[in-house]
Design a protein that fits this description.
globular; mainly alpha; 2% strand; single chain
């Protein structure tokens, strides 16, 4: 689908020589969340049964790892100064950016797809298999996403930052869609009466609302109506 929304130009963007401390610190929770979600079955257990000892141990490991990355500027947004100054520059993409964004893609795609698959199955059969999905399907899908990231086949994880001005909109658009849709789904899961939620009708309602939210937010992102979803173009050259 051809993009017809608004764009930004790289030469019109203000270049900041350094990242402020609060800016770096505010990025820390994002990467805590990304890596805390990495063990999918453990995350499923958290939402199903609450915080337990295993969650606490893993959270401590993530806090130490991401905190160390923050101190040494080895996480996107946590650097002392921005790595990408011009979004059309052909620069090597550092390993830490490729690793962080690959795991971010896993957090965005894996949970969204498994929840969608679980809702479809429950709507058709009337049986919930979410635990089985996270137990048996999460890891293969995670390995596939990590492999795609290692090969540089996902936006923002290539060997060069050349396409950053366009690729960032795919990433942030996916984040907007997945986070908003799954938040709506969580609210439905908590608010829907148990007598309805456990039926095929209830599953169909949740599926319809979840899919519609994904589509609506995805379209808004594609149209550049959400923050960081407009393509950044190199600029215009006038010759007479």
């Amino acid at each position: 689908m051809r993009y017809t929304g608004r764009v930004e130009y790289a030469d019109e963007r203000k270049i900041r020589p350094r990242n402020k401390r609060y800016y770096r610190v505010l990025h820390w929770p994002l990467w805590i969340w990304v890596f805390f979600l990495a063990p999918g079955p453990l995350t499923f257990s958290l939402f199903a049964h609450g915080f337990d000892r295993a969650n606490s141990i893993w959270l401590a490991i993530v806090l130490i790892g991401t905190g160390t990355a923050l101190i040494f500027g080895q996480a996107p947004g946590c650097e002392p100064k921005p790595y990408i100054l011009r979004f059309d520059e052909d620069r090597p993409n550092p390993l830490y950016r490729r690793v962080c964004y690959t795991f971010a893609w896993n957090a965005v795609l894996n949970f969204a797809l498994l929840n969608l698959a679980g809702l479809i199955y429950a709507t058709i059969t009337g049986t919930w298999i979410m635990k089985q999905l996270y137990q048996y399907a999460y890891l293969p899908l995670c390995i596939l996403i990590l492999l795609l990231g290692a090969l540089g086949l996902l936006p923002r994880v290539g060997r060069s930052t050349k396409g950053e001005g366009t690729e960032r909109r795919y990433f942030y658009g996916s984040v907007w869609a997945a986070v908003i849709a799954q938040t709506v789904l969580l609210i439905l899961w908590k608010a829907m009466p148990a007598s309805l939620a456990s039926t095929q009708t209830g599953s169909a309602i949740k599926l319809a609302i979840y899919a519609a939210t994904l589509a609506a937010v995805g379209y808004a992102a594609w149209s550049g109506k959400l923050p960081r979803t407009r393509p950044i173009m190199p600029g215009e050259l006038m010759v007479d």
